[in-house]
Amino acid sequence: MEYYAFTTQGLESITAREVEYALPDAVVTRARGGIVRFTYSGEQAPLLRLGTTEDVYAYIADGTVSRERKGKHDVARRLAASPHWHEAVGAARALKRKDVKRITFRVVSQRPGGDLAYRRADVQRTATDAVQAMFPRWKEVEDDSHLEIWVLQDDEYILAGVRLSDRRMRHRTYKVAHIGASLKPTIACSMAWLTNPEPNDIFLDPMCGAGTILIERAYCMPYLIASGGDADAGALAAARDNLLSVRRPVSLTQWDATHLPVPDGTVSRIASNLPFGQQHSEPEDLRVLYSRFLREADRVLEPGGRMVLLTSQSELLRDVLRGRRRLRYSDTYRLSVLGTRATIYCIDASY
């Protein structure tokens, strides 16, 4: 059966990796533009446990449509011609497991771009009419429907499916406490995957904030030890509240990330969201912080260890890394964080 997932643009390959790890026999067929498409023949429940995805859908149809006014009818025709309705609807109903007298539905139309001769609302209306014609016993509603049919249109291309997830996939239920500039859980989960997690990891987030990376690492895979810290007592209080739902042990300490109370060479994995430029009044303050932090990271990382860092100060990080001979970055991933261009760096410590 065919599915697709929305993820953060720039991190599609990480989601593809998670899909193939978490879903037995899943095969990724395409991963770009913030969308990962894959086939999978197993039960639907594991789909909702994916951590790097923002939404998951059962595939209905895709293809090109006209830019002219008839394009909205092309969308309707593609929906009506699809042979995937039965299995897509079945996947959604298997997750809800409710016997209802009359199925309710709504169509959601998305259009991130494209100069077309018809509106997004036109697509939503014609798609709704097409679904109603195919399933006359269904009832259209505005909210709280049994089924949501989503139609994504990017210029002349459309992709349609039945939404299987809800807001809890992107807005985790464990996030009971929030702080400013807190990292999206889906990005934090991607960073956890990029550390190449292993069950014997000694994992560290030296600037843990509200604890999002630590929590996502805990859900990702077992570990030996996980610990984190922050200079801000308020952030640590938020992290403690958020960690209440985590069953694996995680230790938290208030500390200065440039003077870590950690023995040399005892950490196998580090992941952290570095402070962005707007959080410091002087650029030189940031340079000092990055230099001193990387010195400490170099000290505590074991030979062959890995560090994954997110920053908007890419040039600064690269410059500081040149002074750390043992640390070399291998892969980088560009993305947008709260409207700011940022980069994830995967940094390995040599033997």
Summarize the structure.
By secondary structure, the protein is an alpha/beta fold. It has 9 helices and 15 strands. The protein has 2 domains: 2-163, VC0802-like; 185-349, Vaccinia Virus protein VP39 (Rossmann fold), CATH 3.40.50.
Characterization of the model:
- The two termini are 44 Å apart.
- It is elongated, with a radius of gyration of 23 Å.
- It folds into two domains: 162 residues, VC0802-like; 165 residues, 3-Layer(aba) Sandwich (Rossmann fold).
- The chain is an alpha/beta fold and 351 residues long.
- The strands form two sheets. It has an eight-stranded mixed sheet. The chain has a seven-stranded mixed sheet with strand order 11-10-9-12-13-15-14.
- 30% of the residues lie in helices and 31% in strands.
- Helix 5 packs across helix 6.
Rg, alpha carbons: 23 Å
Spell out the CATH superfamily of the largest domain. Answer: Vaccinia Virus protein VP39
Question: Under the CATH scheme, which architecture of the largest domain would be assigned?
Answer: 3-Layer(aba) Sandwich
Q: Class by helix and strand content?
A: alpha/beta
CATH topology value of the largest domain: Rossmann fold
Number of domains: 2
Q: So how many helices?
A: 9
Spatial arrangement of strands, main beta sheet = 2-3-1-4-8-7-5-6
Average pLDDT confidence is 95
* Anisotropy-based shape: elongated
**Beta fraction of the residues?**
25-35%
Instruction: Give unreliable regions as ranges.
Output: none
Order of helices and strands: EHEEEHHEHEEEHEHEHEEHEHEE
Q: Main beta sheet, described?
A: 8 strands, mixed
Distance between the termini: 44 Å
Tell me the number of strands: 15
What is the helix content?
A: 25-40%
